[in-house]
Amino acid sequence: MSSKIFTPPEEKITLSGISWQTYETLLKELSHRRLRLTYNRGTLEIMAPSPEHELYKKVLGRFVETIAEELEINIYPLGSTTFQRPQLSGAEPDECFYLQNP
Q1: Do 43 and 18 form a contact (C-beta atoms < 8 A)?
Q2: Structural domain range at position 32
Q3: Do 65 and 95 contact (CB within 8 A), yes or no?
Q4: What are the residues whose beta carbons fall under 8 Å from the beta carbon of 61, sequence distance 6 or more?
Q5: Quick one: which of 102, 95, 63, 60 has its CA closest to 79?
Q6: Distance (Å, rounded) from C-alpha 11 to C-alpha 1?
Q7: 6 within a domain of the structure (yes/no)
Q8: Which residues have CB under 8 Å from 40's CB, separation 6+?
Q9: Number of alpha carbons in the 13 Å side-chain half-sphere of residue 2
Q10: Whether the predicted pLDDT of 79 surpasses 90
Q11: In this predicted model, what pLDDT tens digit does every residue of 24-33 receive, in sequence order?
């Protein structure tokens, strides 16, 4: 008999008509929480990652790091840095890496 551990599903809310100022305020107010915010031209998505999401994030991040090491490519892990194009878009990737062109 096999058992599966119950994990809550990923939760996602999408709002439209949100100003850039509201997005920036929410980023500051929710910074202590485990939420991810993505903003694109007035549309805001708020996501609470599931445990599976976090697991896959770690596995894929390790994969990128291992491939870079094996291929002797210098990478700079930037984690979940928030990237912004003011007034247009803002995103928080789960994991990201900077690779310099040779």
Answers
A1: yes
A2: 11-99
A3: no
A4: 77, 94, 95
A5: 95
A6: 30
A7: no
A8: 88, 89
A9: 1
A10: no
A11: 999 889 877 7
